Amino acid sequence: MENNILNSQKETHATSRLGWLRAAVLGANDGILSTSSLIMGVASAHAGRENILLAGISSLVAGAMSMAAGEYVSVSSQADSEKADLAREKQELGSSWDTEVGELADIYRQRGLDDALARTVAQQLMQHDALGAHARDELGISDATSARPIQAACASAGAFSSGAILPVLAALLSSSSIVSWTVSAVSLISLALLGVVGARAGGAAPLRPTLRVIFWGIVAMVGTTFVGKIFGGS
Description:
By secondary structure, this protein is mostly helical. It has one domain (26-228). The protein has 8 helices and no strands. The chain has helices spanning 2-10, 18-44, 49-95, 97-110, 115-137, 149-172, 179-201, 207-232. Helix 2 packs antiparallel against helix 3 (49-95), helix 3 (49-95) crosses helix 5 and helix 4 packs across helix 5. The longest helix has 47 residues, at 49-95. The radius of gyration is 25 Å and the shape is elongated. Residues 1-10 have low confidence and may be disordered.
């Protein structure tokens, strides 16, 4: 019995990791894919080694800043909406307490509780933390899912940079004659590993996510290589 209690206390769920997992997977995937594709496009246009490295490093810096800014703006909008909803809910709790009790009881009734129990649960939860109960059960806002703009921006920038550095290092350590092959191999292996890690962390089977990122990685690299060859004159 004690073991079951201890196990239940240690139990974790994938949903508790969704916020940072989404930002990390998207950021690293974009970092690998966009940077490797840009390097291969420039390399296929017969650019010199310095230009290839410059393109890769520029992609890393610009992409990290873009991911951070985009994530910050997006999550800030979500945070503003959450704050507005919470302020409105707090005002309603101050002006129409009984109505708010009824709203919360209706939610529990729809989840399967009988009328008397639903109202009792609503009353007790609201006596403990009225705004928290309505935020969680009426608005769908909790500590695990609430918007954190700065955290999301830093995670996205860091994840993008950690992904983008891989094709940049591959280009740096490779000779100009085989840079496209080296970058593509390193990038596809990295994308495959990312697909597996992301799937495992999210509690999903790894095969489909891995095949998905590899497929789109190949599409992106082939597309930019084609563009490079056109404008490179061959």
